[in-house]
Write a structure and sequence with these properties.
Helix content is 40%, strand content 20%. The protein has helices at residues 11-19, 26-39, 49-62, 76-84, 98-111, 124-129, 149-156, 187-200, and strands at residues 66-70, 90-95, 117-121, 137-142, 160-169, 205-210, 216-221. The chain is of the alpha/beta class. Strands 3-2-1-4-5-7-6 form a seven-stranded mixed beta sheet, with helices on both faces. Helix 2 (26-39) runs antiparallel to helix 5, helix 3 runs parallel beside helix 4 and helix 4 (76-84) packs parallel to helix 5 (98-111). It has a single domain (21-221), classed as Vaccinia Virus protein VP39 (Rossmann fold, 3-Layer(aba) Sandwich), CATH 3.40.50.
């Protein structure tokens, strides 16, 4: 029997999904609007509202107390995760842009989560490698330069507790990861495909690729 395929998410169906999911509040709407004004075409890097709602619920369901984000941009995903952390929870955010993360800082303050978040500006690989190798991370989210996804993965998985979750964004890459669907042979497609293969072959985790937004890989540490 052939497995039933995932629905084709049309724009109309996506609007239906948004209408029946937790909607962005005033802080999140402000962040969406300021990101669009301040970053232009780069605003597409911001996670979708339904993805943000998922991140909050996942962190809450897990009772996550320590989260790590690689690639903060203007802060929508970190705001979402921080809101779901357990009381006393803490989040480390890694990014290289003072300009874009200034928008994040503003909205973390507005959202009342700035006391939960530590932002480190600099190459994320160096930041991650400076962390103790103890298995203390509950939840991490990778959404940065695609060529370094495997490096970030290898820094995070050993530091994740058993039962902890590692997420990676954009792992369907608008469908171009399917063989033959990227006629331009974009190097980013190859990096994402290599990462997907790396995760699928990793015996330390159980993983699934969710058809949320542009593809969201969710892996649970064994």
């Amino acid at each position: 029997m052939t497995p039933r395929p995932t629905l084709n998410i049309t724009s109309q169906l996506h609007e239906y999904v948004l209408a029946h999911s937790k909607k962005p509040d005033a802080v999140q709407r402000s962040l969406i609007e300021e990101t669009a004004r301040a970053t232009g075409n780069a605003a597409t890097m911001q996670v979708a509202p339904d993805q943000g709602a998922f991140l909050t619920l996942l962190a809450r369901i897990m009772g996550a107390r320590y989260a790590v984000e690689v690639g903060t941009f203007t802060g929508y995903s970190s705001l979402a995760i921080a809101r779901g952390l357990a009381d006393g929870g803490h989040m480390l955010c890694c990014d290289v842009s003072e300009e874009w993360t200034a928008i994040a800082r503003k909205h973390w303050d507005m959202g009342g989560v700035s006391d939960r978040i530590e932002l480190r500006i600099g190459p994320a690989r160096q930041t991650l490698e400076s962390l103790p190798r103890d298995e203390i991370i509950d939840l991490s989210f990778i959404d940065a330069d695609k060529e370094s996804y495997i490096d970030y993965w290898e820094a995070l998985v050993p530091r994740t507790r058993p039962g902890g979750v590692v997420l990676a964004d954009n792992t369907l890459w608008k469908g171009r990861v399917v063989p033959g669907e990227d006629p331009d042979h974009n190097p980013m497609t190859e990096h994402i495909d290599a990462f997907n293969n790396h995760v699928a072959a990793d015996p330390r985790v159980d993983a699934v690729v969710l058809t949320v937004a542009d593809g969201l890989t969710m892996a649970v540490k064994k």
